Amino acid sequence: MEIVYCCAWWGLDHLGMEGMVSKIKSGGFDGIEVGIPFNDKEQTQLRKLLDKFDLQVIAHQYQAEGTTFSDFVKSFKYSLEQAARFQPLLINSHTGKDFWSIEENGVLIEIAQEISDKYEITVAHETHRGRCLFSTFAAKQYFEKFPNLKINFDISHWCCVSESLLEDQPQIVEEAIKRTEHIHARVGHAQGAQITDPRLPEWETEVNTFINWWNRIVQRFRAEGRDFITITPEFGPTPYMWKIPFTQQPISNHWDINCYMKDLLKERIL
């Protein structure tokens, strides 16, 4: 089974589209995870660059917006349609809001399923703060209501929300592993969604915990006879990356860390 390592556009967009794609290729990644532009000209440019540099693409749907629920629904559907038409490997979706009801967020989950069926493409809902799957408790309710709901495994957010490494919640972690279609390989901790630097010895417990979870997902994919699995090392720039007081300089380099995580996982993913 192929493991497709992608790099998030996050923190690289200042390079421009070609500069960003070129840098990701130079870093040894197999693909890019990026928000699909709505502009036809920019979509064409992105597709040409992906072909030029021989990179796969995961569509990151984070663009949906709206001051009212009805406005968000329209924007969400449009954003997913744009992503699906681009024919990526899959769509990673920032779905809903943490303060909307299960019924409201459920409308969005059903729209995503309709688009998934229409275009024959997986939509994975990200386990992200501020979204419908922001916590273990919330996720459990959606898992029970929507048996076919698939996720992007980014439970660094759950660690932050619960102030733990989820040691006392193995059942919901197990259910998340069963529903995973994509992995965001960022390591979180009990007080935040991103450790300072996975190369530091003080984060050994957190790094090992997350790699164990990711390994179990990869093993599940292999057992199911899948052709590939996608993993995006997703350590972010500031404000996710801590800053040095007074100077406001980032404490580490998120690009270097993401390249390190890719190489580390190639060694440790079984």
Walk me through what this model shows.
It is globular, with a radius of gyration of 18 Å. The chain has one domain: Alpha-Beta Barrel (TIM Barrel), CATH 3.20.20.150. The chain is built from nine helices and eight strands. The termini are close together. It has an eight-stranded parallel beta barrel, surrounded by five helices. It is of the alpha/beta class and 270 residues long. The protein has helices at 16-26, 40-53, 69-85, 102-119, 136-145, 156-162, 170-179, 204-223, 254-268; strands spanning 2-8, 31-34, 56-61, 91-93, 123-126, 151-153, 180-184, 228-232. Helix content is 45%, strand content 14%.
Give the SSE layout.
Layout: E1 2-8, H1 16-26, E2 31-34, H2 40-53, E3 56-61, H3 69-85, E4 91-93, H4 102-119, E5 123-126, H5 136-145, E6 151-153, H6 156-162, H7 170-179, E7 180-184, H8 204-223, E8 228-232, H9 254-268
Parallel strand pairs: 1-2, 1-8, 2-3, 3-4, 4-5, 5-6, 6-7, 7-8
Helix pairs in contact: 1-2, 3-4
Key terms:
270 residues, alpha/beta, TIM Barrel, 8-stranded parallel beta barrel, 9 helices, globular
In N-to-C order, the SSE pattern is EHEHEHEHEHEHHEHEH
- Work out the helix count: 9
What share of residues is helical?
40-55%
Query: Per CATH, which architecture?
Result: Alpha-Beta Barrel
Q: What is the topology, as strand order, of the major beta sheet?
A: 1-2-3-4-5-6-7-8
